[in-house]
Amino acid sequence: MIIRSKAPLRIGLAGGGTDVSPYSDIYGGAILNATIDLYAYASLEPLENNKIEFCIDGSSSCIVIDSEKELQLVEGFELFIGVYNRIIKQFDLPALSFRLTSYIEAPQGSGLGTSSTIVVSLIGAFVEWLKLPLGKYDIAHLAYEIERKDLNMSGGKQDQYAATFGGINFMEFLANDKVIVNPLQLKDEVLYELEFNLLLYFTATQRLSATIINEQVKNVKDNNEKSVEAMHHLKEQAQQMKDSLLRGELKNIGEILHFGWTNKKQIAHSISNTLIDTVYETALKTGATGGKISGAGGGGFMFFYCPAVTKIKVAKAIENLGGNVQSFKFTQQGLTTWTSL
């Protein structure tokens, strides 16, 4: 018997960063994101040898350790061990024996929510195996607590909820870690047109989001007026994006993205760099009407809104800068689990 799970990665269309505490606790945050058909997978095989085996990226890196109720963290396997320790503790379970393997269809540090999506898929495997009584909100919140509290990793809350729920969602982030997920029911033609006009581009660089997020957190704590005001605008951008999509007014999408990008760069100085600015300016010169970096910033994926038939021209121009275009489709399904007999 092998237990499988998969959870989709996401692109953040608007409001990115307003899900991070303490901003969301003080002012309330709002984000509009969409999951895409790139996934984090987990496979769990029960064992009977009193051992635990963790494998990353199929089998490229593995560790085998003795089964215990609480495991010590091992560099590179923090997410695996964090999930295991929390599951055992929260549900008062005995030590388990199994092989747990992960695989993800995008590089970590690429800005598509990879780490959180891995955590959601790992939790999903345990939920399927042990028949744990957890709903979607429970799984997403548990993933958030494992990353941000148990493992003390910097970041926000949107990725865990996007991976668990799937689809295009307007999310609200309130005090005391309260999150409200509002699925958008878009007309098919709106969804198709949005997908047709969005260009996803990997800069062929990766970044450590923690440095950027920590600077953002410090700016809010210090009440940095410029940074906080920019985050207010990003929250406003999420509402603008939601309204335009629900009304089918896609001609505004590029302008809304550009509004967000100009403000995003104000919340932390390392969000952009010379390469990112060059890619962005090249995309606009060749037909895009707006775009943004995906995730915290500093590298990874970018995406652009390319109306009419400008996407091919934009793609050729920015691929000359060293990155590559990634094809994708939106997905409506979030975390999925099943058992292979």
Polypeptide structure, described:
Helix content is 40%, strand content 24%. It is built from eleven helices and twelve strands.
In brief:
α3 (114-130) packs across α5. The protein is built from eleven helices and twelve strands.
Question: How would the blueprint of this fold be written?
Answer:
Layout: E1 2-14, H1 23-26, E2 29-46, E3 51-56, E4 61-66, H2 78-90, E5 98-104, H3 114-130, H4 136-150, H5 158-165, E6 168-173, E7 179-183, H6 188-197, E8 198-202, H7 209-221, H8 225-247, H9 253-264, H10 274-285, E9 290-293, E10 301-305, H11 311-319, E11 324-326, E12 336-340
Parallel strand pairs: 3-5
Antiparallel strand pairs: 1-2, 1-12, 2-5, 2-6, 3-4, 6-7, 8-10, 8-11, 9-10
Helix pairs in contact: 2-3, 2-4, 3-4, 3-5, 4-5, 8-9, 10-11
Q: In whole angstroms, how far apart are the ends?
A: 5 Å
- In total, the number of strands is 12
The oligomeric status of these chains comes to: single chain
- Which spans of ≥5 residues are poorly predicted at pLDDT below 50? none
Query: Into which percent range does the helicity of residues fall?
Result: 25-40%
Overall radius of gyration: 20 Å
Overall average pLDDT: 93
